[in-house]
Amino acid sequence: MKFGTKVIHAGLEYDSATGAIMTPIYQTSTYVQLEVGKHKGYEYSRTLNPTRHALEKNIAAIENGKYGACFGSGLAAMDCIIKTLNPGDEVISTDDLYGGSYRIFTSIFEKYGIKFHFVSMSDTSEIEATINENTKMIWVETPTNPMMNIIDIEAVSKIAKANNCILAVDNTFATPYLQNPLDLGADVVMHSVTKYLGGHSDVVMGALICNDDLLAEEIYRIQNSSGAVCGPQDSFLVLRGIKTLHLRVQRHCENGKAVANFLRNHPKVDGVFWPGFESHPNHDIAKKQMSDFGGMVSFTLKGNNLDEALNMIKKVKIFALAESLGGVESLIGHPATMTHAAIPKEEREKTGVVDSLIRLSVGVEDIDDLITDLKQAIN
Prior knowledge:
Blueprint: H1 3-9, H2 50-62, E1 67-71, H3 74-82, E2 90-94, H4 99-109, E3 115-119, H5 125-130, E4 135-141, H6 153-162, E5 166-170, H7 175-178, E6 188-192, E7 206-210, H8 213-226, H9 232-242, H10 245-264, E8 269-273, H11 283-289, E9 296-301, H12 306-315, E10 320-321, E11 331-333, H13 345-350, E12 357-361, H14 367-378
Parallel strand pairs: 2-3, 2-4, 4-5, 5-6, 10-11
Antiparallel strand pairs: 1-7, 6-7, 8-9, 9-12, 11-12
């Protein structure tokens, strides 16, 4: 089954009671049992709900995985996978990652005895220099947020397997339409479903996908025990969103390319960060592991002046100033004061998150309108 068919049909069945083509919203907390110990597969909606179950099967299928688990947010999904570790374990993470990921690692899990190392993963040398007998997980985000760095999943997978580590990949920016980390050797994939999978800025959700039976069993145990699950209404909305994922992401890619090229040629723009440029440090790896380059673009203005960056952001009319990304509407953000404010300034700037950095989530509007909006705001 090809991807465009998978997003619409994989893991889904027509409602047996009515023939409804859309998965019903099972807005129920509990289920009547036939007799003690005998039920129809559902006991309590924290453990399993038919609407959420359909979504979990669908998300697993589009990531070429066997098992999917959905949560109340992307961070709740991260919380689950880190809970598979034990005090004394160590995690190697990329140093350029979403601020919320950094926050949950450092302010939540470090106090429980899990140690995190943040290293550049543009090549594997720093991973190899950091890995030790206590390393149990490598956390990869590619493309990274917000610098659009590309990490070679296949190369990192070889290191993880040689050292008996779990390789977890945050695939939020790429989506399953552009990149499938499980096929490249990852053990588990994480999505902030809030973003491109939902696609309409109307739901908050996270997901984990894997192929390993034992890892899946542990994920489901933690999901049920901790209870950070998503509701049936949100599950329905994401099922609806995924049906157009391939159409939306293709348009995001087309518009992202046009915006990136416009910015690169603007005299007031200093640097543009988008993996589709041949000059991008790991462009060849992006070409190898992605089918296109996405709709996320970051750029800096010349002079690295905070006031100029904030002034430009104030002037946009179509791009909306907001956190998040991946919706059909275009968004603009200032990572240093918004999505990455949880990361200390010194650490941010080491990775390129300077005061003039602006991040765009390029939507699916008419490209001429988007470029006109950016042009008037920068000028």
